[in-house]
Structure formats: structure tokens, C-alpha cells
Amino acid sequence: MKKYLVLISLILFSSLIFAQQIEEKGGLYYNNNKLYTGLFEKKDNDAITKMNISVGKLDGITTVFYLSGQKKEQQSYKNGLFDGLWVTWNENGQKLAEANYKEGNKDGKWFIWDEKGILRYEMNYENGQRKGKWVMSDEKGKLISEKEY
Asked: Which domain holds residue 83?
């Protein structure tokens, strides 16, 4: 009886794997030529990406992992466009950048840190345009320049 249960489980599992043929065409995701809705995971040579997709478009949180399992990027999408926070880390887990988007445009504060964790750049955007104070610091965190847009 156990052999039959194992065999049935393997058949069901393999049919689920092969039934999901997700592919990206022109920025939209399809499963068997129909717009896809659900979770999707893909593996490249250097990363594993886990995406939320709604009616063919990225929607919600997309997370990219190094092959080690450490987070590499976390992006927020709404209706296929960047919308919300985007964060990147190095392989040691050190935050390298933090950016904000609204409806696909740069919007809000952006930060870039060096490998030592020192804030090097602080930028502000509004609706895709430079706006407000931009600050650049040296490798010791000392102010190098400040500009108003």
C-alpha cells in the first residue's frame, strides 16, 4: 500500500511541475499561453528569484536571493511597475542601497552605503525628478558635497 501511495505522490508531483510552464514575453508572464497569476520562482546562474504575479504582471514583493540563500534584492511592484521600497544587500547581508518608487517613477529618499556600511549618498526624488537635498559623503562619512534641486 505504501508503494502505491509513494508512486501516486510522485506522479502527481511531476505533473504539477511540468504543468507550470511560466514564460515571460514583453514584460508579461504566461502559463500555457494564458496570463499567469500566482507565485513564480526562477533560478539563474547566480540567483534565485521569487515573484508574485497578478494577471501576468509583477505585483507585490519580489525577492532575489544569492545561491547561498542570503537576500540580494527585495523589490515592490504594483501592476507591473516599481512601487514602494527597493533594497539591495551584498552577500554578507550588508545593506548597499535603499530606493523608493511610486507608479514606476523614482519618488522619495534614496540611500547608498559602501561595503563598510557608511552612508555615501542621500538623494531625493519626486515623480522621477531630482528634488530637494542631495548629499555625498566620503569613505569616513564626512560631507563632501550638498546640492539642492
From this structure: 38-148
What is the per-residue pLDDT for 103? Answer: 98
Residue 7: what are its φ and ψ, rounded to 5°? -60, -45
Residues of the chain with confidence (pLDDT) below 70:
1-20
Q: Which residues pair with 111 in a beta bridge?
A: 98, 122
Mean pLDDT taken over the chain? 91
Q: Residue 27: CB partners within 8 Å, gap ≥ 6?
A: 57, 80
CATH of the domain at 82: 2.20.110
User: From CA 130, how far away is CA 122, in angstroms rounded?
Assistant: 12
pTM above 0.90, yes or no: no
Q: Please check whether residue 118 is in contact with residue 112, taking contact to mean a CB–CB distance below 8 angstroms.
A: no
